[in-house]
């Protein structure tokens, strides 16, 4: 059955083991027309949006090949899940071809000299290879009208439940942006009432000058302590390990781990190199 969000039988035509990108699966984009007048950005444009590759391919280029719009909202940082079809280790970056069942996208993960040495000597942990399922965090870019994702992280998927969970998140955000919140009284959509969905706000990447992220008000004091430490400490893109955090803010390891899980569930942080290393979702890419 087709519910109007693109190829109702997409999972019969494309799969993680089959013909990626065939059959037109995924979500049909909502309104993508640019609002009249000058385009403004606020901190919500920096939100991390769960998305599908079909949506990335369908997103409207706002004219500079770095800003894109989907469902009437501009976006910058995105995350998606797919299966690695090809891997090329080059001098300055690793190039992946990733298929999520709705399309195929080229992903570039830039490497420095130290990372290159670790790749060459085989000491780079959890380096994705062909046929691995991975989660990508990055930004959509275009060069000569060809799109790719510049990635901060390409993380191997250990729990297969992450795959359907991601697609449910992407579906929910798409529906809330195009149809509004469930039981929204007057039935106005997010685009009509000028508001953003609560779910999309949940992916907000930090305070961004508009006050404390509302998600922080709904997590425990220990989770706020961990978040504050991550927010204020110098760190690379890998984030910080739970042992470092726990020692610095004087929390037992098990309490710090629970706080970290709580922040991830709230969409405020994500795991990087392993399940015990976290970063805040507000990095420039």
UniProtKB/TrEMBL annotation:
InterPro entries linked to this entry: NA-bd_OB-fold, RFA2-like, Rfa2/RPA32, RPA_C, WH-like_DNA-bd_sf, WH_DNA-bd_sf
Domain of life the protein comes from: Eukaryota
Q: What are the alphabetically sorted keywords of the record?
A: DNA replication, DNA-binding, Nucleus
This protein's record includes keyword DNA-binding: yes
Q: Which residue stretches, if any, does this entry annotate as coiled coil?
A: none
Please tell me one Gene Ontology term that the record gives under cellular component: DNA replication factor A complex
Q: What is its main location?
A: nucleus
This protein is called Single-stranded DNA-binding replication protein A medium subunit
Q: What is the lineage of its organism?
A: Eukaryota, Fungi, Dikarya, Ascomycota, Pezizomycotina
